Amino acid sequence: MSLSLRTWPGRLVARPWLLAFVPINAATAGFGVVLPLLILIPLHGSWADVAVAATLFNSSVILSSVVWGRLADLYRGRRAFLLANYGGYAALYLGLTHIGSLPWLYVLYTAIGLLSPAGTNAANLLILEKFSEKERATAFASFQEMSMVGSVAGLLIGYFWTVANDALAALLYVLAALAAVSAVALWFGIREAGRLLTNASVAKHPESLASRLHISSSLRISIPFFPRHPKAGPSRLARFRLWVIEEMHHELPLIMGAMFLFNLASNLYNISYTPYLYTAGLGVASIFLVNVANNLAQVFLYPLSGRLANRIGPDALVRWSTYVRSLGYLATAGFTFALLFGTDALAANLVSFAVLGGAIAVYTTASSLLLFRGLERRDAGGLLGVNSALGGGAAVLGAALSGVLAVFGSFRLVFLVAAGALLISIPLWTAAVVAYRRRRTGAPETVAVVVAPAPAHVPEPAPTAKPH
Question: Which pLDDT does position 213 carry in this prediction?
Answer without folding.
Answer: 60
